[in-house]
Amino acid sequence: MRIGFLVWNTFQVGHFAEIMRQFDEPDVIFINRDVSGLKNFDPQWLTRYGAYSRFIRETDLASLDGEYDAILAQFTPPLSKRWKKTKLVMCQYSMAKPKTAYNARWLASDLGLVYGGFSDNIIGKMCPTVLCGNARFDPLFEKRLDSEFLGPVDKVGLQIT
User: Fold this and answer.
1) Looking only at Cα atoms, what is the longest distance across the chain?
2) CB under 8 Å to 119, separation ≥6 — which residues?
3) Deepest of 31, 55, 145, 158, by most Cβ within 10 A of its Cβ?
4) Domain holding 103: CATH number?
5) Per the structure, how many domains does the chain have?
6) Which residues span the domain enclosing 75?
């Protein structure tokens, strides 16, 4: 199965990092937008997740159809027509702002990965869903937190007893 992760900033890369671990050689597909969204990001960082990177112009996203079985994204790709061969899997990334967390973008998704029952109750009316929690916290709950990934964060405040 060929899987891609469509991103344009480092937040999205970090959000997908734990999900990437679940696939053999996934591609992280960077949309060429404003490079400031990737400030100081080294794509070599992805190798620890077995992932490769590639860059594509936003106007060329339609060309990805059929190249991947599924592409995961936090957003609806700007396409004039939906992909026919490649499934779009949208991933919830926040619950903080209802107007952005639960908007109509989910209608374009073939599958939605959501945090829990509250989100499923809303998003599940717009697309099929799977409750998966927030994968970004997996290392914390599995006690395999990567201090390099954390960066300048007070690690004491993240301890779980």
Assistant:
1) 50
2) 92, 95, 101, 102, 129
3) 31
4) 3.40.50.11820
5) 1
6) 3-158
